[in-house]
Structures are given as C-alpha cells and as structure tokens.
TrEMBL record:
EC identifiers of the protein: 2.5.1.145
PANTHER family the record matches: PHOSPHATIDYLGLYCEROL--PROLIPOPROTEIN DIACYLGLYCERYL TRANSFERASE (PTHR30589:SF0), PROLIPOPROTEIN DIACYLGLYCERYL TRANSFERASE (PTHR30589)
Primary location class: membrane
Compartments where located: Cell membrane
Binding site for a 1,2-diacyl-sn-glycero-3-phospho-(1'-sn-glycerol): 136
UniProt organism field: Paenibacillus cellulosilyticus
UniProt name for this protein: Phosphatidylglycerol--prolipoprotein diacylglyceryl transferase
A GO-annotated cellular component: plasma membrane
Gene (name only): lgt
Residue intervals passing through the bilayer: 20-38, 50-73, 93-110, 205-223, 270-288
Highest taxon listed in the record's lineage: Bacteria
Function summary: Catalyzes the transfer of the diacylglyceryl group from phosphatidylglycerol to the sulfhydryl group of the N-terminal cysteine of a prolipoprotein, the first step in the formation of mature lipoproteins.
GO process terms (BP): lipoprotein biosynthetic process
Keywords linked to the UniProt accession: Cell membrane, Lipoprotein, Membrane, Transferase, Transmembrane, Transmembrane helix
C-alpha cells in the first residue's frame, strides 16, 4: 500500500518531453530568489533587469558547476555511462558546486556592470538561502539526500510529520531521516536572521553574505553527517577523527551517523570539510575587516555603479543605481 502513496517524480508529459518535479521545484526556488533580490534592489535604485540578467547567466553557471562538482567525486559511477552525466533531473546536484559556479558568474557580472561584488552578494544572500530551502524539496520528491534508517514511529509520533512526508521517506521498505526537511527548516530560520540583520545600521558590506555562509555551513555540517549518500574521499585518520569529534554533539542528542562505505568512498565527507572551511573563513573575514578597516562601507550605504550613466553613452540606465 505504501507504494501507491509515494510521489511520482514526473509532473507531466508534453508530447515527447517529460517534465520532472525536480526541475519545477528548482525553477520555483530560482524565481523566489529573483523576486527577493529585485525587491531589495529597489531600495538601492538597482533595476530589476540587473537581477534578471544575473539569474539568466547565474542559473546555468550554477547547474553546470554543481554537476561537475558532483560527477568529479562520483566519477566511478559515471565513467561507464557518460550520457548519464547530463541527466540532472535524476538528481546529483552538489550545492557547494552550485555556489562556486554562481559566485564566479556573479563576480564577473558585477565587475562588468561596475558594482562592488560584495554589495551585490549581500543583496542576493537571502535569495541564495531561499533557493536552497525550496530546492531541497526536489530531493524529497526524488527520494534522495535522505539520512540513515529510523523507525516509522519516530517520524509520525516524535517529529509529528504528515503522512505524505512519512510515506515518501519509506525507501524500499525502510524509513529514513528526512534530512531534506531538516535542512529546509534550518534555512527558514536562516533567512529570517538575514532579513533582520540587513535592517541594522551596524552591518558592514560583506557581512550579510558571511552570515549566510556561517549559518548554512553550520547546519549543513551536522545534517550531512546523517546522510547515507555523502560524497567522500580518503583523508588522513587525524582529519576523519577531527570531523567525527565535531559531530559528537549529534550523538549526545541521540542521532547516529549515516552509513559511509569507508573502503570504497573514503572516510571524510566532502561537504562536512567544505562546511568547516567555509564557516571558519566567514568568521576570519568579518573579524579581519572589523579590525583593519577604519572607514567601512555599511550594508545600508548608497550603492552606485562605477560605469558611466546611460545618458552619457546612450546605452541605457536600467543598471545604474540612483542614489
């Protein structure tokens, strides 16, 4: 009976074209992120066209980088069937790879438009976390990125999850931690924090972005340890022990680490290591700039482009901030 209650990953067919829920959900996340950036950009006099163009270039860059990142760590799985590399609707998108692609695109585009990248990244930080909290539901529909096995009663009686979520967490007769939900809810709290912080006068340029990095990396580190599909590599024993030690608070709360085939995959989860590095980098960045910069630029300061206005070159003024 549980088989009939699981969600169909295919939303509908348009002739020979199959539309997957995974793609629809990712598209929805991108749209919500765009609307958030456009709305905040209005406060700084930035045209919606700027963010629309950024999205049109940033999404493909993020998807390509995310797929390359994932396939690079799962090459043994794909080398025998290279065409599978392009089947992103089946899952296999690494969020840290997506961030790398999006940030490379953002740096280049902001420079091209004459804006300070950190100022633009601050505006887009809530958009990033909003896209992630929505995008995780694509993993839910695909029955992927879940955690280790749990009792059905844990999901229904302790977490009080609705039946449609519990049923979807039944994978081949075994119920699993809904890590997609844990991360999504963690990001809901994160976006509220960002919304509050960006109204504060003390917030400096780049610090909202660092807050996003800190918050996401902190939650991702502990949630990643629950998953059974983590990308991993064979690292030194001291590093594996260090990572396991940092994850110990989860064991104190009664959680157990998700299965990791050390012999075949490695002993260090890639996303956990990246999370630790990102978290520390965010802290160092904020502290260093607070100590060294005497006359800082704040988040609420006017934002202008260094490029000449359209009235001077007849190109168009939609991307020039009026402040």
């Amino acid at each position: 009976m549980l088989e009939t209650l699981r969600l169909n990953p295919i939303a509908f067919d348009l002739g020979p074209i199959t539309v997957h829920w995974y793609g629809i959900i990712l598209g929805l996340g991108a749209l919500v992120g765009l609307l958030l950036a456009v709305q905040e950009g209005k406060r700084f006099g930035i045209s919606p066209d700027f963010f629309m163009d950024l999205l049109l270039m940033g999404v493909p860059s993020a998807v390509i980088a995310a797929r390359i990142y994932y396939v690079a760590f799962e090459w043994n799985r794909y080398k025998g069937d290279f065409l599978s590399v392009f089947k992103i609707w089946e899952g296999g998108i690494a969020i840290y790879g997506a961030l790398i692609g999006a940030f490379i695109c953002g740096i280049l585009y902001a420079r091209y438009k004459g804006y300070n990248f950190l100022r633009i990244a601050d505006i887009c930080a809530p958009s990033l976390i909003a896209g992630q909290l929505i995008g995780r539901w694509g993993n839910f529909v695909n029955q992927e990125a879940y955690g280790g096995p749990v009792e059905e009663s844990f999901l229904r009686d302790k977490l009080h999850l609705p039946g449609w979520i519990v049923d979807q967490m039944n994978v081949e007769g075994v119920f699993h931690h809904p890590t997609f939900l844990y991360e999504s809810l963690w990001n809901v709290v994160g976006i509220i924090i960002l919304f509050v912080l960006r109204r504060q006068k003390f917030l400096r340029a780049g610090e909202l972005l660092c807050t996003y990095f800190f918050w996401y990396a902190l939650g991702r580190f502990y949630i990643e340890g629950l998953r059974t599909d983590s990308l991993a590599f064979a690292g030194p024993d001291w590093l594996a022990s260090f990572m396991n030690g940092l994850w110990t608070p989860m064991e104190w709360m009664g959680f157990h680490a998700g299965y990791l085939n050390i012999a075949l995959e490695g002993n260090v989860r890639v996303s956990q290591l990246v999370s630790v590095v990102l978290l520390l980098a965010a802290i160092v960045f904020v502290v260093a700039r607070r100590v060294t910069i005497v006359q800082p630029v704040h988040y609420l300061d006017p934002l202008v482009s260094s490029k000449p206005k359209a009235s001077d070159n007849n190109i168009g003024s939609s991307d020039v901030a009026n402040s």
